[in-house]
TrEMBL record:
One of its GO terms (biological process) is base-excision repair. This is Fpg/Nei family DNA glycosylase. Transmembrane segments: none annotated. It comes from Lentzea tibetensis. Residues 238-272 form the FPG-type domain. Its cofactor is Zn(2+). Keywords: DNA damage, DNA repair, DNA-binding, Glycosidase, Hydrolase, Lyase, Metal-binding, Multifunctional enzyme, Zinc, Zinc-finger. It comes from the Bacteria.
Amino acid sequence: MPELPEVEALAHHLREHAVGRTVHRVDVASLQVLKTFNPPWTALHGREVTGASRHGKHLDLDCSGLHLVIHLARAGWLRWADTMSAPPPKQGRGPLALRVHLGPPGQGPGFDLTEAGTKKGLAAWIVESPSEVPGVARLGPDVLSLSRSSLEELLAGRTERLKTALTDQSLMAGVGNAYSDEIMHTARLSPYATAGKLDADALDRLHSAMHSVLTDAVARSVGQDAARLKGEKRSGLRVHARTGLPCPVCGDTVREVSFADKAFQYCPTCQTNGKPLADRRLSRLLK
């Protein structure tokens, strides 16, 4: 799933390549992706792109005051091309969901919104204000805007596990499954630590790790072609999606805890005093 660094890099790419261009045509290949119907997608036609920004993990393309807000979900992506195919795509076929022409079709650049797999979560809204998008309206403060004292205030009294708190977009916006694993590993904190019971030293490490992990990832990602961002993300990960490989810090084996539809990774030596965490899926299989 694209998280803060990748979405920030996509926004930067659009600021560099889309701002100042005119939306000539929008092709909808999957009506499911559009979550608003008024204004219609044709209202974007003829509008100049005046800005591109990020709200948590939502991408926002400002078209002269009308906003195309995009949430890429788990398997969605934005694919830029210097020349877009002119014929409108057929609906309901393949991964293509939405195509935006930023020049005469067949002659100018633009981008596709695509989604792999059968479980569809990619979503787009056409609104006059990003706050009209429910997911944006519910966002907590952006994680990179948090000071050490603000982080302490946010977590005070929280009873959920740290992994859950870091990925709760209504608490703090921008971090998902992958970077929460990286942040906790860098901070040497257990995913099962109670968020509201971290002592001052743990909070110091957590705040420092949040900023260092994310700013480093943004620095690596911004300026990359959209097609290279996924590979750049994977190359920078130390524990996430590295189950069974050695931890680059201590050499211990990276472990995994699996749930119904996702998993997280951690290093026992760095994060849990050498103790493996219970994997509920494995425990059920052994019963």
